[in-house]
């Protein structure tokens, strides 16, 4: 009996997939694994650990930044040759001549060209006919030639403009798709362009992240994804580790709704599910803006009116010509009559050409394309041409403040801790790393009781996910949520090492920030030396479990029952003190400051 293909055909891990023998798995095998997404198929590779070994990557350390580095600076050469790059192949750019041929197919230009050729032929015939006076110059060919040159200029102008416009939009499209993602390389978190993600990279996932590659879930906390764009299912899907036996496949194109985690990248670019979908749907997505559509309708209406006028003129002048010839004493010769008829036809076609404002929609398109390129220099990326037109009609703009009306750079400029307040003067506002004076911040640190100071430092270090990296200029900066960056900047100004503090406060459980809870919580194991005399005892003898909470001020304050005094001791939060804290929060909010509250419990 003939064998029929079955979707349950087992995979062939380690089989001959062709390509580089440096890796024990092929891109095709990984594609098939993600297409079926069966745990049994995953086990054929030895689980996620087996795939990691086949991809030559340590799930804890990630890839090496210097893997397969070449003299020209290229890295990951063999890996990209084997599994591809995280970029879709460029659509073949149309040639200049294809635009020229398209422009030449315009009906008006076609009619005008026919009239010009007829005029040129008659002009040459008249110039070299025996009846041509010898003392007159032979210029009968000029009119037809001039019309042909004009047609050629129009075709070249339209072709050049369309060709340049496509090049501009290619640059815009490449720019709008580029963004940074968080990876683990050499054991440290870093930010790289989404185009530089490779198969084998360990990617960090946070709420709001649009996953651009296919991967396998390694670890994390309460990670939920929306895979409706890939599967059509609108339900939130919780991801589980391989050990728990749940769904550990993360699809490209899905959105992280809640939780944090890390995943092993196994398919990028056109090999990913999202990439294959985009390749199958790839087509010219250029659309006319509403104004261009209106102008096209206007041009069509004017063209119809112009055609009617040209046809009417052709009929009237032709009728006049034949009536004049009929009543004339000597009937004109045939060549003279034909020449006059050609002149009348050319005049009618000229009226038709002049009446059509075909350059107006083209001018609008070019103006919008040029405007978007200029706006890009101001870091204002316009993804849709119609957006320029829409904003031109806007009368009221309701905008978010952070990152839109501001630079999205935050600094701690005010605070209250253990009844000690801090308010930066105008000169002190700014990033302490930038060398800005921070005398008030130093004075605030000195005024804090030791217990409260140690607690807030550990709270900031343990209950944040931002990390230190380098920007485009090579300067060391914190990378992550801007609120957390501001807190870590303050910690650094205090002279504290956030890495050591994170290491000392061993994290046991993390509850990531979500828009529903508006808080982020972490459970740590810390030393008793940080205890505040609350009477909590530890079964371990030398450490306690502590919960740190960071989030919206009004929500966290509402759940608090105690606060730290200026002496560093806990005190019951009565109604009067709660009212004072609420008023302080309102005062900060009235100054357009983002307020957050830090709390803990042993």
TrEMBL record:
GO terms for cellular component: endomembrane system; plasma membrane
Entry membrane topology: Multi-pass membrane protein
SUPFAM superfamilies: Calcium ATPase, transduction domain A, Calcium ATPase, transmembrane domain M, Metal cation-transporting ATPase, ATP-binding domain N
Membrane-spanning intervals of the chain: 108-125, 145-163, 307-328, 348-371
Chain residue ranges for the region called Disordered: 1-22
Any one Gene Ontology BP term: intracellular calcium ion homeostasis
InterPro entries, alphabetized: ATPase_P-typ_cation-transptr_N (IPR004014), ATPase_P-typ_cyto_dom_N (IPR023299), ATPase_P-typ_P_site (IPR018303), ATPase_P-typ_TM_dom_sf (IPR023298), ATPase_P-typ_transduc_dom_A_sf (IPR008250), ATPase_P-type_domA (IPR059000), HAD_sf (IPR023214), P_typ_ATPase (IPR001757)
Domain Cation-transporting P-type ATPase N-terminal, first and last residues per copy: 44-124
Keyword Magnesium attached: yes
Keywords of the record: ATP-binding, Magnesium, Membrane, Nucleotide-binding, Transmembrane, Transmembrane helix
GO molecular function: ATP binding; ATP hydrolysis activity; P-type calcium transporter activity
Primary location class: membrane
Pfam families: Cation_ATPase (PF13246), Cation_ATPase_N (PF00690), E1-E2_ATPase (PF00122)
Compartment(s) where it occurs, according to its Swiss-Prot or TrEMBL record: Endomembrane system
Protein name from the UniProt record: E1-E2 ATPase-domain-containing protein
Lineage of source species: Eukaryota, Fungi, Fungi incertae sedis, Zoopagomycota, Zoopagomycotina
